[in-house]
Amino acid sequence: LKGASNTSLPIPFVKNGCLPIIGHLIPFLKDKSKFIFECQRSYGSRFFIELFSQRMIFLLDPNDWSPVIRNPNLSLPVKDFGTKTFGISRGFLDDEPIMNEIHRYFKLYLQSTESLDFLTARFSKCVRDVMIQDRARIGSHVWHPYSLLELSHRMIFEASGRTLFGDMNPLLLEKEFLLFDKKFHYFAAFLPDFIYSLFLRREMNARSSMTTYFNAHPHSNNESELVHHRAKRILEAESRQPNDLGASHTSIFWASVGNTIPATFWSLFYILRDPHALQKINEEICTHLPPFSFSDPNDKSFEFWTSGNIAKCVYLESAINEVLRIKGTPMVSRKCYQDTQISLADGTIIPVRENDMISLFPEVVHSDPNYFPEPEIYKFDRFLGKTTDAIKGLLTFGSGKTICPGRHFAKNEIKICTALILQNIDYEFLETNMNINCVKNRIGFGIAPPDCDVPIRYRYKE
Ligand code: HEM
């Protein structure tokens, strides 16, 4: 075993499932959750594995997380994501001044109260527009057979694309997005290049089509400030290669919908089946968020759908946080960019080499009864009065300097879709007692979609 001779770490090397050259790649890609929990049972909360020649050190005890998050030599492998996952050139990603500026834009244009309110109201309007079109297509008060994931996709995909990118038609990219998204876990696993060109050619082509589209349309009318300033800065950069703008837009496009669609699915899946949650959430939506008119083109009710008013829906907030806990299974990965050491909670010091990866796996905490009593049960009011940022161990959006900058917008998107569906749509589940799990190989990248869709029928209320 290659890794065994490498052991200079004071923590065990996992022997199960390790093959020559590729190391633990197969069990890791197949079902991360199962593999990590099995390793935890055999080796405790600290162990390491190998993926090709890279060491991946797992620290599953949340008491060990803060020295990792705070260590300046460890950070989210943004450059690997950029190149391997989205095809951005390495030279461009190495341009520190540009990258720092773009990072600043994330804070400024996704998180400031003014920008967040603008994006939130615009997103509400865009979902309303999608609903108006949909209602015109299927008619009002006519039952339409569909499925819950499709409905979540339909409500989020176009509205989110238009909110960020302005007057473009996101549906032109839908087929390519779905192809790429289905195999996203391979792109985010940073595999050797030949694997992509040999086995994932269709998905590579789909990604290229999105890049080409965005290269040809760097700006659109009514684009968000984030997209506007980012595109402008990228176009000015001397380090930029021809595809970098399109690839960077593709990365934001994916980031903005790749997790929000499954999160909305799970939110509806749990809330719609819980009469008590439905009653409480319906009451507060009715009080704080004005319904819109399907017939009045000048209706401006979406302007009241601000972050402030949405935040008044405290049961909805708690219900969404509970979805983020029960289905939020990211792997918070930090790459080591310079040899360093980490001093863990019990005083153990771990030497970490350049190129090692440290992984925290919040699902271990999200499903720990010491943190969340009866963790397997969805309790819509579990987080009443608490915010996700304040809850120790709930790391659905990552942590530290690179914590997801879109998290407040993402939560508003999920809430808006859920609220608008409750306000405007009657629905019925066509099958009860379905046993639905997450797509296993998507675990580790945020919120995994369901492994099968849930048949429903819906109709617009009169
Ligand atoms: C439910 C939805 C979402 C989930 C679960 C999610 C989760 C995450 C996670 C886990 C990270 C890595 C953080 C880290 O390891 O420190 C991340 C990064 C990021 N997310 Fe999100 N995200 C969501 C929605 C969004 C949205 C709507 C946007 C943009 C509009 C967005 C933009 C980004 C960006 C730009 C980064 C990279 C940050 C950096 O380079 O520092 N995300 N997200």
From TrEMBL:
It is found in: Endoplasmic reticulum membrane. Keywords: Endoplasmic reticulum, Heme, Iron, Lipid metabolism, Membrane, Metal-binding, Monooxygenase, Oxidoreductase, Signal, Steroid metabolism. Pathway: Lipid metabolism; bile acid biosynthesis. Heme binds at residue 404. GO terms for molecular function: heme binding; iron ion binding; oxidoreductase activity, acting on paired donors, with incorporation or reduction of molecular oxygen; steroid hydroxylase activity. GO terms for biological process: bile acid biosynthetic process; cholesterol homeostasis. GO terms for cellular component: endoplasmic reticulum membrane. Its cofactor is heme. InterPro entries: CYP450_sterol_14alpha_dmase (IPR050529), Cyt_P450 (IPR001128), Cyt_P450_CS (IPR017972), Cyt_P450_CYP7A1-type (IPR024204), Cyt_P450_E_grp-IV (IPR002403), Cyt_P450_sf (IPR036396). The keyword Magnesium does not apply. Coiled coil: none annotated. It holds the Pfam family p450. Substrate binds at residue 259. Belongs to the cytochrome P450 family. This is Cytochrome P450. It comes from Rotaria magnacalcarata.
